[in-house]
Amino acid sequence: MWQGLLEIGGAYANGNQSSYDPDYVPTGPMYWNAIAFHRYAAISTLWSYLEMERQFKVYVYKEGEPPIFHNGPCKSIYAMEGNFIHQMEMTKFRTRDPNKAHVYFLPVSVTAIVHFIYESKLRDHWKPMKRTVRDYVDLVSGKYPYWNRSLGADHFMLACHDWGPELSSSVPELYSNSIRALCNANSSEGFNPRKDVSFPEIHLPRGTLEGLVGGPSPSQRTILVFFSGGLHGPIRPVLFEHWENKDEDVQVHRYLPKGVSYYGMLKSSKFCICPSGYEVASPRLVEALYTGCVPVLIKDHYVLPFSDVLNWKMFSVEIPLKNIPNLKKILMTISTRQYIRMQRRGKQIRRHFELNLPPKRYDVFHMILHSVWLRRLNVQLHGMRDP
Question: Can you say whether residue 230 is alpha, beta or left, with left for phi > 0 and alpha for psi between -120 and 50 degrees?
Answer without folding.
Answer: beta
